[in-house]
Every structure is written in structure tokens, then in C-alpha cells.
Amino acid sequence: IALQIYPEEQPSWFFVLKDTFFLPTVKRHKPVLWLFLMAFHISFLLLIVGHIELIKKFTIFQIIPHEVFLGKGFIGVILAVCLLYFLFRRLFPPVKDLSIPSDYFLLILLFIVVLFGSQMDWARTWYGYEVLSIEDYNTYLQSLITLKPDVPDNATMSGHSFMLIIHVFFANIFLIYFPFSSIIHSIFAIPMNKLRRG
Fold it and tell me: How far apart are CA 181 and CA 68, in angstroms?
């Protein structure tokens, strides 16, 4: 009697998280796209951490000591390059044939948000232009949370404050558009992969 030995099964959640965060299917079939997707998602995560640190410093994020904002300006460069790649790949078949206007709108909107946000960080970290300090950002962002926007007096009518207000304006458009866009998949990725895996 032949005995069939089954390999030890991994928990289904292991594969769900692997599919969600490491995109093995994309890596197997489109390695270049996978590289840009991973760079984009990791940079976007660091971007979220950086914005949290601008509002309030948390020691949990200082496991590896760093300045605020994270990456010394290079996170913005990586995000901008990734978004340009996603946008330009939609200009050529077969991706072009599957694209709709909202796909282009979303990528252009994200690129504008990243560009204006990065301009402030590039000016501060690369060129020593620091009309707005970290404390000023902190004050401004907390004023937005309390729905009482207040740009610090020392930054009024400066190029830095103009960039900040434009960045926040387009970021708000993105937040309004987010629930109706294809990027909503980020919220449902784990449950959908769980349903697919069973």
C-alpha cells in the first residue's frame, strides 16, 4: 500500500499576507513592474510615517535614528519616478487598451501631490532653505486637524508656505477622490486575498 505523504501545510493567512504584500504573481510575470510596485509601496509607507512624525514624534519610529522627514528627500524622488513609470506604461498597448480616464487622473493627481510635497523637503534638506521648520509644520498640521488652518507668521507669503498650501490642497482632493478610485483596493486587498485563498 503506497502511502501518500503531504507536505506540511502553511497557515492560509501566511499565503494571504504573502500575496498581499509581496505580489508573487506580478514578480513572476512582470519583474520590472514588480520592482516599481515594491519601491512605490515601501516609499509610500515611509511617507506615512514621515507625516505622522511631522504631527507628533513617536519613539517607536526612532528605532533607527533619523531626521524628520525620512529619507532626506530621496523618498519623494523614488515616489515621483515610480508614478511617472506607472503613468507612461499606460500610454502604450496593451496597458493603454485597458486604461480609462480615471486611471490617468489618479496618477497625475498623486504625482502633483508628491511633487509639491517633495519640493518643500528638497528645499529644506538639499538647499538649506528652511523658512518653515519642523515645528512650523507641526503647528500647521495640528491646526488642520482642529479645522483651524494657521500658517506661521514667519512663513506668510513665502514660497515655502505657498508650496505647503498647494500640497495640502491637492492632498485633500486625493483624499476626497480616494473612496471612488481604483486605489481603494489597498483597503480590501487582505480580505479579498483571504476570500480567494479560502
Answer: 30
CA 105, 110, 116, 122 dihedral sign is negative
DSSP 136-192: HHHHHHHHHHTT-----GGGTTSHHHHHHHHHHHHHHHHHHHGGGSGGGHHHHHHHH
C-alpha cell at 125: 534638506
What CA–CA distance (Å, rounded) separates 32 from 145? 39
Report d(CA 73, CA 66) in Å as an integer.
Answer: 12
Q: Determine the Cα–Cα distance for residues 27 and 156; give it in Å rounded to an integer.
A: 47
Q: What is the DSSP letter of 91?
A: T
* Spans of the chain below 70 pLDDT: 1-11, 13-14, 58-64, 130, 152-159, 188, 190, 193-198
C-alpha cell recorded at residue 139: 503647528
Burial 45-82 (b: 16+ CB within 10 A, else e): ebbebbbebbeeeeeeeeeeeeebbbbebbbbebbbeb
Q: Are 12 and 197 in contact (CB under 8 A)?
A: yes
